[in-house]
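Repro:
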Amino acid sequence: VLKEFVELRGGELEVLYALSGWLKDKPQSYSVVLSRKDKLS
């Protein structure tokens, strides 16, 4: 199913990176953020 989806709509796809971790000042606070490659630097 995924292969068919990519074949049909592959040109419309974009890779997102999942960044996750704990805040230094709030170790009990875990978060996940999705980001595009151009926003990583």
